[in-house]
Amino acid sequence: MNSKELVLSALRNEVTPRTPWVPFVGCHAAKLLGVGADEFFRSADLIVKGVQVAAERYRADGIPALFDLQLEAEAMGCELQWAPHNPPSVASHPLADGKKLADLKIPTEKDGRFPIVLDAMRRICETTGKDKAIYGLITGPFTLALHLLGTDIFYNMIDEPEETHEVMAFCRDVCIHTAQMYMDTGVDVIAVVDPMTSQISPDNFHEFVTPYCIDIFDYIRSKGKMGSLFVCGNAKRNIEEMCQCHADSLSIDENIPLDYVRDMCQKYNMSFGGNIKLTVTMLFGSVSDNVNDAMNCIAIGGNKGFILSPGCDMPFDVPEENCEAVAAVVHGDVADLMETTSPLEGIEVTLPDYTDPTKVYIDAITLDSESCAPCQYTMEAIRTAAEGLENLVITEYKIKFKEAVAVMMKLGVTNIPTICIDGEIAFVSIIPDNDELRNAFIAALKKKGL
Q: Are residues 297 and 364 in the same domain?
């Protein structure tokens, strides 16, 4: 059984001779090539080379051809903000800026960066894809709708449900067409990556996401391919609903207990994947931290239908030796890698003086609002709710930096994104509506007589 067969066997929820390993290498591939992410994501040659280098160096059993959740949005008119160490982020929302749904069209092979990406995918499938499973990642319908609408979608689900369904139906059709373009290049798996679904309730998921995901995964299956649903953030409340979306597999991050997902997925005869910690382990941890985390995940995941992977797109600066350590665990040659260091050794941080009577401190704990969609929209929600309010100090702590991880631990935060008000955890892994968030800010100001 070669690497590709191993991944596909696990996706079919079968017992495998060893745990398959799928590193979610996106912008990190740019680092391996010594180029910026802003250059990498716009070059077919770099994408191909990056995947080849990552797959070989990390002894991957499967690998995404590209990890860019802004590709479809850009092709439909969303402006992007580029960065050297992150994937691009969406900077404008056409449907919130005056365009009508009828003005938008489903992207084709000729739109945006699709010509570059499709060329790269074909070449990856013809080379790396000979013996490794190639994942084609598409932006899930809810996250894509949020790119088009902005945070208005959270209000529209309540105030304009029919219009929201129209947008979701359009995004479903975009997903299906994108999946078909990717399948035509020869990818083995279509992963529907919908991180923003961690921000809604099970009822809203059932109404506004489930029916459209079912259509997408049924279409993928009708073409003889396998489909995986990917979510990040604290989506535990929605896991059972996700298991009813007709996907073959569910992939989650560190915010959700792996044993809970294992038991829920096995109930629905689904495979599952995850959930090595992105920052504390992969970005900041030692080799031994990565060995231990990988071993723990494998012990929980077992040998039936489990795929070991990072919790999400790996940060740009993840040390190569940490990924190599995970590969060593998977391939059984870890003996020479062990060491002992703390990822936060020597890091000291000072929290704001939350008793300060002249200010209210709003702390947002994120992965990075420039690269994580739920984090981006959390920060947008904070800024919108704070408009016109004085004496607020808003700080984003990006846990891709060690100092922010130390702040996260001091505040007792365990999930991202989280909003704290004057040092107290207020909103965990959910974007509150504008009135609720603004009222929370106003109440904190009044408490201090401001």
A: no
- With respect to residue 343, please indicate whether it lies within any of the assigned structural domains: no
Spatial distance between the Cα atoms of 219 and 221, rounded to a whole number of angstroms? 5
The SS3 of residue 89 is strand
pLDDT digits (tens, 9 = 90+) for 26-44: 999 999 999 999 999 999 9
Calpha distance 171→213 (Å, rounded): 10
Domain shared by 155 and 276, yes or no: yes
Three-class SS of residue 161?
helix
Cα dihedral sign for 223, 228, 230, 236?
Answer: positive
Structure tokens at 185: 């290049």
For residue 235, what are its two tokens? 């989506």
pLDDT in tens, 386-431: 999 999 999 999 988 889 888 988 998 877 889 999 999 999 878 8
What is the pTM assigned to this prediction? 0.87
Give Cβ neighbours of residue 212 (< 8 Å, ≥ 6 apart).
141, 168, 169, 171, 172, 175
CA dihedral defined by 245, 250, 256, 261, rounded to 10 degrees?
A: 90
Strand duo 306-310 + 271-276: pairing = parallel
**Residue 264 token pair:** 């829920």
What are 411's two structure tokens?
């505040």
Q: How far apart are CA 236 and CA 261, in angstroms?
A: 8
- Which residues contact residue 224 at a Cβ distance below 8 angstroms, ignoring those fewer than 6 apart? none
**Euclidean distance between the first and the last CA atom of the chain, given in angstroms as a whole number:** 67
Beta bridge partners of 62: 133
- Considering the domain architecture, whether residues 255 and 127 belong to the same structural domain is answered as yes
Whether 338 shows a pLDDT value over 60: the answer reads: no
**Mean pLDDT score, 374-386:** 92
For residue 335, name the pLDDT band (cuts at 50, 70, 90).
low
390: domain CATH number? 3.40.30.10
State residue 402's pLDDT score.
Answer: 86
Q: Is the pLDDT of residue 342 over 80?
A: no
Structural domain of 108:
3-337
Among residues 86, 114, 178, the alpha carbon closest in space to that of 141 is found at: 178
- In this structure, are strands 249-251 and 226-230 parallel, antiparallel, or unpaired? parallel
Is the model's pLDDT at 339 over the cut of 60? no
Query: Per the structure block, which two tokens stand in for 171?
Result: 């995004």
Do you find a cis peptide bond into 417, omega within 30 degrees of 0? yes
Is the separation of the CB atoms in 311 and 254 below 8 Å?
A: yes
